[in-house]
Structures are given as C-alpha cells and as structure tokens.
UniProtKB/TrEMBL annotation:
SUPFAM superfamilies for the chain: SirA-like
One function term, GO molecular function aspect: transferase activity
PANTHER family per UniProt: SULFUR CARRIER PROTEIN YEDF-RELATED (PTHR33279)
Keyword annotations from UniProtKB, A to Z: Transferase
Organism, as annotated: Kaistia dalseonensis
Pfam families: TusA
Name used for this protein in its record: tRNA 2-thiouridine synthesizing protein A
Catalytic class of the enzyme: transferase
Domain UPF0033: 20-44
Entry similarity comment: Belongs to the sulfur carrier protein TusA family.
C-alpha cells in the first residue's frame, strides 16, 4: 500500500497488507473479491479496497460486521473512487451468516 495515502493512517504497512483494485467492478464483485482476499490474509493484516460501485459503501461495512473484520477507515472524498481500509479479524469458527444458517428452526 502507498504509505502516503491518508486512509492508511498511522498503521505502518507490513508485508502482509494487500490492496484490492475493484475500480469498475459492479456489485457484488467488490465485496466478493474482498471476502476472498481477507480469507487468505493473516489476522491483523490490512486490506485497502478501492471501488467505484456506489453499493460498496453499504456492502463493505456490512462484510466487516458480518465476518468480524474491522473497518478502520472509509474515504469518499475523491468521487467516484471509494476507499476502505479493513483490518482482518481473528480467525473464527464461523461467520455470523453461517451461524444463522445453522440455527434450528423454531
């Protein structure tokens, strides 16, 4: 990641940090590609997602909430490009959406 990018903040980039160029991709591809990359990353590593799909502003924060990642920052100051800095959460046995699918019906 570019150390000069304001979205990176005070976090010193590590070799485990990654960047996803989702510019020009339509929903649901930015969030699907982000989920796939995050699954391959170590807990604590950061992913910078750059997208132009307006739905990413909803989908990326939702992904973080559902999968236990931290949305460190989001930047909408340079339209049409949206930037999201995500910190990979700790490994969990299953995501919130998987837990809902496994519930016994009432």
């Amino acid at each position: 990641m570019d150390q000069g990018n304001t979205i990176v903040g005070s976090h010193a980039p590590s070799p485990d940090d990654r960047r996803l160029d989702a510019i020009g991709l339509a929903c649901p591809l930015p969030v699907l590609k982000a989920r796939k990359m995050l699954a391959q990353m170590a807990p604590g590593a950061r992913l910078l997602v750059e997208a132009t799909d307006p739905m990413a502003a909803i989908d990326i924060p939702h992904l973080c909430h559902e999968d236990g990642h931290i949305l460190v920052n989001q930047d909408r100051s340079a339209p049409p490009i949206l930037r999201f800095l995500i910190e990979r959460g700790t490994d969990r046995a299953e995501s919130a959406s998987e837990r809902r699918l496994d519930r016994d019906p009432l």
